[in-house]
## 1
Amino acid sequence: MVAKDTISSIVVFLFSLGAFVLAQGYGGGAELFPRGLAIIMMLASAGMFVRAIFWPAAIPEGVPKMERSERNVVAFCVIATMAYVALIVPLGFATASVIFIIVISYALGMRNHLAIWVTAIGFVGLLYFLFVHIFHTPLPSDLILGLLGI
Amino acid sequence: MFHDIFTALIEMMTVGTIVAMICGTCLGICLGALPGIGATLGIALAIPFTYGMGPLPALALLAGIHNGSSQGGAIPAILLNMPGTPGSIVTTWDGHPLAQQGKAGGAINLSAISCAVGGSLSALSLILLAPPLAKVALAFGPPEIFWVNVFGIATVAALLGNDLLKGFIAACFGLFISAIGLDNVSGHERYTFGMLELVNGVATVAVMVGMFSLPPAWNLVRQARKRESATGSMGRIQIISERIWTVAGVWRAWAVASFIGIINGILPGSAIASFIAYNEAKRVSKNPEKFGKGSIEGLAAAECVNAADNASALIPTLTLGVPGSNVAALMLGALLIQGFQPGPQLFRDAPEIVYGYSWALVITALLLIPLGGALASRVFANVLRIPTSLLLPLIIVIASAGVFASQNSMFDVYVAAFFGLVGLAMIRFDFPIAPVIIGLVLGAKAEFNLRVSLMMSAGDYSILIFRPICIILIILTILIVTFPLYRAYQDWRNRRAKGGQGEISAEH
């Protein structure tokens, strides 16, 4: 808990200091609000730091620490999500989403092949239909659907 | 006022709005039934879909999700002893024992009717209490509105988390995000780093969806094993919808729980309403010994209070533009997206919207009786069988599609992913997320009113202090901020006293 608060207070302080310095260049009163906020954040982070160092008993109880195995699974899901977001433009929404659903389901231990493939294709197809044909909102153009001429 | 209320009811009676209410309620029940999801994530995911809808159907859909998820949480609580939402913890105490006695269907039915009672009374309180408050708030000028915003942000920062300092840092972070882009008054670009996409500011939807839906989705895998082993035993539970209650047996519990829920909703920050209502229902009950062993009154109180703070929590949101909970903050964002500025002017400028939304809350609460009872126990309970390994990617795909579609911008999807990571880091470092969203949605308004006040006084800051309503709001803000400090001091004293007693008994 002490380490968490010490690290986060330093990060917040540096972030606020950066925001304060950047705001110096804004004129016409545009600097007033962000600089005021930066000062409040710096004071609060300094308070957090002092509390963590000199009065650790006053730190309220936080979320329990994750087990190593849990941490690995969450990290995998986060990385997979970032990869999915990065692949939406090159592959298109439908293709990237189907691949993402299938990969995550298998990676998290699901082995019902029919359920995975039917859900992935059916769900993404339904979402695509809803957005494109019902809400008339285009989704990022798709590689495979483009080749199929859909 | 009464003319507006009845006109709004007539305007709500269109096919589109009724379908939106039914779909929203069904969706809400399903989302509430999935442990780890609930109203906040459901509404965050649904908001981008409402872009293409008219304001009333959009708000009706969100009202349905809000009320539906309150009742949905009771399904896993009763069937699996696993609360779907934090408010359903108390439901497990009597709901699951009833299921073990073979009364699962009756218990789900009672939970639906209790939610309908609490939800509709809460919505009626919104209809009756909000307009007078809005009338008072209409007299506020820019300095008062600035302090109302500060009060709202301070309330959420101080009361929604368990750490005042972290709550304030989170709120200030949200205010910072709102400052990104073109300054409304001077026209200067702030924190855009030369990126054209940031000139108009960060999309509120992207931040809301990123922070409220991605971290819970990623964290779902942590509870996957527990949930899936519990769901495996569902097949053995017999769901028979026999009537296990009478109005005469539960009316006291409903009355107490509704009152506590409504008050709790208006005064934000208290997460213990269900515990208080349960204890009070036990105190006024003729059979307190049955509580915890399958008491009908205990279940009725627990479920009634869960729904009773839904609409009343929107009273400060709609009248003052100050949200007091995660869902209220999201609803504020939803209204802004639809082009409405929540606050007293909304009652004057668009009464059909504010009363229409209130009616949607009443109707969706009543829809829980047919949809949340027998139908929920037979049909919606099956959503519990969806494995987490499949649910997680589906949530992320819906979130990405919704954020993209809101402004046809891939940049918003990247922003959502970035704020998802920020949200995850904040949760790991024990920072609350709700103040960020509230800072974000109130930031522009707070800054605008601050700058206008200073223009009015030619830069004299005393305009912010020496006005009667400002003084009251400043005192209230100070009280709100000092209350957690006082509570922390009391806890520390109690701990010290217990430590002292421990030492004395150890000596003996």
## 2
Amino acid sequence: MAEKKKKEEQIIAARKAAGQYSKTYSMFTVSNMGVYNCDRFYNYEGQKNNYTFRNGDDEVDNYVFAILEDNKGVIALSSAYKVGDVYSLPTAEIKGFVYTNPNGEILASSHDAKNANTNNDVQLTMRSKSLEDCDQLQNIIKSL
Amino acid sequence: MKLQNIFYSALVLAFACNSNPTTTASSSNEQESTIFSKIDAPIASISPSSEFIQFNNKDGNVIKTNKGSVVVIPKNAFVNADGSLVEGEVKISFKEVFTPSEIILSGIPMNAKNDGVVQPFISDGMFSIDAESEGNKVSLAADKSISVSVPSKREKEDFDFWYFDENIGEWKNTGKRKQTVAEDKVIEFASTINPEMTEKFQSSLAADIASVTTPIDQLKSIEEVNSLKKPMAPAKANDVDFVFNIAANYKQYPELESVKNIMWKPFEASESEISTLKTDMQTKGFDVSIVCEDEVNQIYKINYGSNSILARPVFIGADKEKAVKSYN
């Protein structure tokens, strides 16, 4: 029994060394097949500014995502965030924007919170003409 | 697309309510009306990859996924559509959605009602799970449940558990996450649900580690012998580095062609050079060319528009391991 325990400890130590060990887990109990999430609501009480998004001369609307600082979350922009014709967004919290289109193109823009204005017209630029996988998009997000 | 438009319309009212009090007068009833959402991947051909877990229903299973989740399936957990016990193999499809890119590409709605107002979610781990036997969907027996332990990055924050009910297009809160648990507790719990498979799981974990560490040790010794002659090995970007990607045609650069998802880390660049790069990336489209300045130290000059910057290729996550493989 002591030998088994020692072996388990060796396994955990090796995992830690290999960087494959997660310190803690959220434990779900699944009673139905489907989608499960460990979430909290994103509450923001600070300054919000107005944003519109462009691909060249065209205004884009759906499938624009605001990436929050420290990769802590993603806001999928929809009419829900619009006040009139513009999106009202938490300026200080956003590191950049990503736009995806069905052709697999990815456009993006970094966001400079310090120099943001009350009204911001964000020009999205091409980052990938043919997205290959999730990792490639994650790299684009990291570069914002 | 039509359903999506209905969803957006409903959300307009909800958020207008939150951000602009003057617009709330007529919206309260409408806010309570149907808020329908669905899983809608923005790029149909690309979504977070699934892992498949196959096992005999009479045995159940305990596995650790490539991204670190532990799935514990009890014996005789699954039943057919008519309620009869599944005799034979069950295949579970398990998809983890952890990173912002995976959240975006999964198309899973990330909003829910909070005191009647729709608000966005911050996630500490999301997954989808599905099961079939001989091509037919199967479900969990009424007295059975699967335990899924997902690695936590935000162990000290308050989170709730949610289940997305695709029939009505809404998230259902299933309770508060009281605390996260350590791996030894996860395994201890697994052994109470399925002791035989937990023991097999621990044995396979040991074999897995042995197979992972041996090539890395060999690689280190090879690096030591050849370090003076070979170009430096692909480097990993760390969390604090500024890195950027460029939409270059890497097929023009034979030494870079074989690696994927290259990111670039500025090399000995001044703050103003980095600032110019950031501004240009944000505001301009530009032609890019890459020139190898120092092959051994992996320093490249990246020309963009009328500017240039020295940079080294770096890789993130699994891409680094792929790059190392290609490098060898």
## 3
Amino acid sequence: MSDIDRNENKARYSIGIDLGTTHCALSYVDMSASDGEKTAQGVLSIPQLTAPGAAEERDLLPSFLYLPHENELAPGDLTLPWTQERKFIVGELARSRGAGTPIRLVSSAKSWLCHPGVDRRAAILPSDAPEEVERVSPLESSVRYLTHLREAWNHAHPEAPFDQQDVTVTIPASFDPAARELTAEAASAAGYSRMTLLEEPQAALYSWIQKSTGGWRKQVKVGDVILVVDVGGGTTDLSLIAVVEREGNLELHRVAVGEHILLGGDNMDLALAHTVARKLASQGTQPDPWQLRALTYACRAAKETLLSDPTAEAVPLVVPSRGSKLIGGSLRTELTRAELTQILLEGFFPQVDASTRPVSRARVGLTQLGLPYAQDAAVTRHLAAFLGRQVNALAEIEGLQHETPQGATLLHPTVVLFNGGVFKSPLLVERVMSTLNSWLAAENAPAARLLEGADLDLAVARGAAYYGYVRHGRGVRIRGGTARAYYVAVESAMPAVPGLEPPVQALCVAPFGMEEGTDAELPAQEFGLVVGEPVHFRFFGSSVRRQDQVGTLLEYWQPDELQELEEIEASLPPEGRTPGEVVPVKLHARVTEAGTLELEAIPRGSSERWKVEFDVRGGVSADQGMGL
Amino acid sequence: MTDMNPGFFGRIGIAFGVFFGVLGNAAFAGRVQRLREAPEAPDFTAEAPKPAAAPVQPAPSALKESSPVAALQLLGLLQRDARFIDFVEEDIANYSDGDIGAAARLVHDGCRTVLREHFTIKPVRTEAEGSRVTLQEGFDAAAVRLTGNVVGKPPFNGQISHRGWKVEDTRLPKLAPSHDASIVAPAEVEL
């Protein structure tokens, strides 16, 4: 979709979609009824099945897909307000049904979508389903959630068809180009014709800005560096956004994003449940898998009570029996504050030094399926690593008036914005703030302030809808472009040494900070592509090398400077050429309006452009031991 | 007309129940004592109880039958989220208060979830209980029940003994036409 089409066909609504690991939400801004910082915004109540044959409207759509057996449900049980044709279930019923029959439940599809060890377009989910269950791909399950949201919108707003509105779908800031591309592909397959991607921490900040209705200019000032800590159900996402001045106006500039950390609120509930289960086992009661799931729900509620009420010392946990005897068969235990502090505060948010880094070790009880969950559960250690890695990130930002203090070992944020239901707990907010402020105090930096008034559950969807609105020039925008520079591997021309891999050089093809809708220059270097045969290149990203331009050739880099991403695959079709012929091409990068990175191969002396694909079949990384 | 008083074997059961009840429960013993001291209770053998007058005042032409579907739906929700039927149907006589209390927590949590999710419930009177209020002429007699010394004409002055509850919004799930609401909890068979 080109810019011209967007302008000709004016959308009435800007729709924001939070496509989360555990929940989806849809918010919208009525652009015709909004003016400047006064916006008319709503959250769509999403009709979904909550029991067989019963549909209800909820603000959140649980991101679960259930693939029922043909005899499992009565005819008509899957009737939605707009269709009777569905053969699968998404939302609340999928979640509750799947608790009893996990072999037919697809969960955490989003984490699978960015799992480099598996083929994301292959039907692999549910991963432990028996043969006869027809599996779906991580891509397909995302398509189904997005389709449900589109249909729900069209059912509620027949006067404003979904495909004529501006749609923003959020992704973790840490998503690599392949995962972004897959999300865009899923949206397109779900019938989203005008779609833009937005990073979730940015969406959270947009939501906060919108909620302040202009007051944000008083709460932050030029030179402030905002740290967004977003702990969702399945992922932890960190971003840094600087407040700069340009032509007399305050402007927001996203300067860095964190690594992909597969660690969220669900891991915390699971860790608590396993602790309580061990306690029960030591008393001679072994909870079965069904009871363990019920225990996880009970622990979540108990956690929320303990975290919100500092005077409570213990919360009783009751796991009902499965049969109709409620009292006789129930398991009774309790979650104490000491256990909560031990597991949650010390396990996930330990008070650590700024110099600590996440550790890799075998863990028990935190992982479920084959997903590459974060090895270290400590969010604060991941935060220390992020701020340490980005210590020099502010050096090049124009209009910030910032000087990195001498001897600083970490970047110094001045304000913090939290997002995610986990931070409804003042205890956890306080723990992160005190840990961060102890690091800052050690370097004689002023303590960071907390940005109040964030909406922790729906901020991402709301912020995404607001972003679609400010894209039309009606509010402050966060700038920053891509948060990584990208490189392809070039084998250096050096005589082969037996037993040694030839050294690899990295050629920059896309610099840091490319904005949506811009093209990178053409590098001078050419690659030989064999006509009719796919050629693979190793592909790298760096979140710290901000100066490299297109054509920069790296011979040496620190191990944590460049991360290897999935390979890219280029192929030249044989039309008009001899198969087997070697054609010199240049690699050209552009960032689309939707926010995805596109690579093209341009043959020498020709205007042809061939798309270079991200290889999302998971082969390479699996070899590296990242996978199952 | 059947005799409302129990037969011989029924009386044996009651006698045993009362015997142990009086021994084990001081409050029950007190109630039995008051019953024995009280003037003769109305005799059920003689006349059939009269049906209570219907509480609909103006011209009760026909009472409308309420649809059982919504009631069944609510029952299903209470069972699903609060194990309500399991709790009420279970014989609690042999469990300790601790066991029953633990289950009651679960039922309470679940019932609260159902109420909060499917109804918007607000007090009828926003004043604190115990405070004095004046009811003007034409007050809504369905929303405020007068008790005690009900004489004279409005405005009435009185004290709120219960704030009352009103349901402002009901959000019950929409049902597929084929859905059988009478199954409030399906049997579960694990394969």
